[in-house]
Amino acid sequence: MLATCSNILQIWDSQNYSVVKEFGHDHVPSTDIIKSIDWKKDNSNYLVFTYKQTGRVQLYDLQKNKSVELSTTKAQCCSFSTSGKYLSITDEDCHAQIWDVNSGRIAQTFNSVDQTPMECVCWGNGDSYVAAGTR
Predict the structure, then answer these.
(1) Selection from 109, 116, 105 nearest residue 130 by Cα
(2) What residue ranges define each of the domains in the chain, with the CATH number in brackets?
């Protein structure tokens, strides 16, 4: 599956290139767009996304058609770890947070070395490393 977004999030079947699910303004406020999106990599039906204007972070369960707000920080980017056990979120307040997905709690917070907002994040070497980039 593939997910694309703007102010409408679309989930595509990558085998036949058809839209299997679409979220309009019920999930995305009309004044906001989705900035970052990532699938949980353990073959589950979870995806996470951040809003550009508000910075809110939503975890969406595709099977149950429900979403939960994880964070109200001014999030920039989000990424699940390779195992799906952790979720990293960067924000405009110069932090990168590592969330334990099972407990729903922050496991670790890192501060930007140069005190600028962190705009991107990714995992490497399984769950061993997380990299975050600033402006």
Answers:
(1) 109
(2) 33-134 (2.120.10.60)
